[in-house]
Each structure stands twice: as structure tokens, then as C-alpha cells.
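Module 6 notes. Inverse folding takes a fixed backbone as the condition and produces residue identities as the prediction. Think of it as a translation problem where the source language is geometry and the target language is the twenty amino acids. Below is one complete input and output pair. Work through it position by position during the lab.
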């Protein structure tokens, strides 16, 4: 019987084969066992915190979905964007976006997670307030960012006369959301959040290009990526983005990834094509 750590390793290997976008990004995660949280969570540095008891309760498909859930939190910059917002409300808003996108990729999530209606493409967000239980319906959540849903929720709570939002709690949030500190530093590194955001923007772009070359680009992800990360892409990155569509990127087991030594697991190395561009006028 595999340990929780071994099951996470197995899931990451499966992702590289079944879901290239998530598999590529999973190589940047560093699993860390902890009992400080009840479930699983990720920070902007890519540390994947997990409670072993929580992992034991998940079947293989749910574990895959949960890891992808954490990956999208980082891809969509939720640890940064939600740091200065009402975190209970932002937690639900972020999960609505993440889970709606994962469902479209036919991934399975743990029981109790917030899920959209399959037929109407709408999601009901339930909040417990001093005015009672309030349900807010969001149309096409997979096409929105967490910030957009957050603004919709806040506006609806205002209309319902909820003035004391500090006590508002949501229903359906199953993981731990780890936000960056108010001083702009991420949890475990010296780099500030802007630098980390740029790093993940680059990694996400590479993952999208790799998935496109495999013919398995997740539907809608590129549009959301542009909406969220557009400010972090300079002209060199944009030029690289379109040129590399014709240049293959792949994994190889002939030479192990450098992460294999630290994780004590044989992970494939990423094959990259290098390209130098000179523009002369």
C-alpha cells in the first residue's frame, strides 16, 4: 500500500501523461507533509502542503483533481490576489472558478466541493450571514476570474443588506487557501510576489505551449491566462509564445529531472528548444 507521499508522486506522474498542462506545472510543486492544515493547500512558492489523513481519504481520481485544483490556484494568482480581500468570500469565489474549469476537463473533485450545474453552466454560492443564508447564482463561472466573481458576490451582499461582512462564511470550500503576507513577501522565499507572479506566468505559458503541441490544450485556459497574466508578458515573451507554436517541447526519461534527486523519485526531464531572435532595423 502506497504512503500519502507516494500517492502524490504517482498522481504527478499520471498527470504528465494524461493532462500535459497540469503535468508540466506539477513538476514545479514541492510536496510537504503537515498536520497544521486539515486538507491540502499551496502557496505562491509552489509548496504543496498536505495532511496525510486527508490524502488517505481520497481515491485516485479525487487526488488527481485536488492536485490540479491547487495548481490552478497558483496559475490564477489566488494567493496574491486574495491577500487583501475578504478571505472567506474570496475563498469561495476562487474555488468557483477553479472547480468550474476542472469539471470541463472531466476531472473529479472531493465530495462537498463547489460544482457548477452540468446543464445550465451556472453555480450556486451559499453564504451564511447575519441576514441568514444567502445563495448567489453565477452564470458561466469558468469564463470569469475569481476577482470578477468576488465583486459580484460583494455587490449582491450589499443589495441584501449585509453590512457586517466580517462574519460571512461560505459553504463548499474544501482546501486551505494560503495567502501571501501583507508586506508583499511570499511565505518561504525572499522574492516578492511580483517576481513570483512573473515566474508562474512564464511557467504557465510554457505549459500551454506544451499542451498545444500535444493537441491537449485545456479549453478556455488560454483566454483566462491572457486576462490574468497579460500585464506580466513583455514583447519578447509574446514573440516567443507565437514562434514556439511550431517548435516541439517534450519530456524525456533518458535524463532525469534535477528535482528527482531532491524528491528521490525518477521524474522526466523537460526538453526545451532554444531560440535566439535578433531584430534589426
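Target side of the pair, the amino acids:
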Amino acid at each position: 500500500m502506497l504512503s500519502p507521499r507516494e500517492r502524490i508522486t504517482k498522481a504527478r506522474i499520471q498527470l504528465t501523461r494524461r493532462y500535459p498542462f497540469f503535468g508540466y506545472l506539477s513538476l514545479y510543486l514541492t510536496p510537504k507533509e503537515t498536520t497544521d492544515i486539515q486538507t491540502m493547500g499551496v502557496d505562491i512558492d509552489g509548496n504543496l502542503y498536505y495532511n496525510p489523513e486527508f490524502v488517505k481519504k481520497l481515491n485516485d481520481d479525487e487526488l488527481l483533481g485536488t492536485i490540479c485544483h491547487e495548481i490552478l490556484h497558483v496559475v490564477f494568482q489566488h494567493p496574491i490576489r486574495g491577500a487583501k480581500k475578504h478571505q472567506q468570500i474570496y475563498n469561495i469565489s476562487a474555488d468557483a472558478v477553479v472547480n468550474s474549469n476542472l469539471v470541463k476537463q472531466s476531472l473529479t473533485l472531493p465530495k462537498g466541493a463547489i460544482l457548477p450545474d452540468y446543464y445550465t453552466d451556472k453555480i450556486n454560492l451559499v453564504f451564511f450571514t447575519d441576514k441568514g443564508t444567502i445563495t448567489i447564482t453565477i452564470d458561466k463561472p469558468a469564463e470569469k476570474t475569481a476577482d470578477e466573481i468576488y465583486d459580484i458576490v460583494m455587490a449582491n451582499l450589499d443589495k441584501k443588506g449585509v453590512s457586517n461582512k466580517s462574519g460571512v462564511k461560505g459553504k463548499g470550500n474544501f482546501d486551505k487557501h494560503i495567502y501571501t503576507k501583507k508586506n508583499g513577501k511570499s511565505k518561504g522565499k525572499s522574492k516578492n510576489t511580483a517576481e513570483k507572479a512573473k515566474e508562474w506566468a512564464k511557467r504557465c505559458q510554457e505549459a500551454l505551449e506544451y499542451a498545444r503541441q500535444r493537441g491537449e490544450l485545456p479549453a478556455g485556459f488560454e483566454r483566462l491566462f491572457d486576462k490574468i497574466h497579460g500585464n506580466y508578458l513583455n514583447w519578447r515573451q509574446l514573440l516567443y509564445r507565437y514562434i514556439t507554436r511550431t517548435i516541439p517541447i517534450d519530456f524525456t526519461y533518458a535524463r532525469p529531472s534535477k528535482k528527482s534527486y531532491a524528491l528521490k523519485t525518477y521524474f522526466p526531464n523537460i526538453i526545451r528548444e532554444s531560440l535566439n531572435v535578433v531584430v534589426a532595423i
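Reference fact for the lab report: The longest helix spans residues 193-213.
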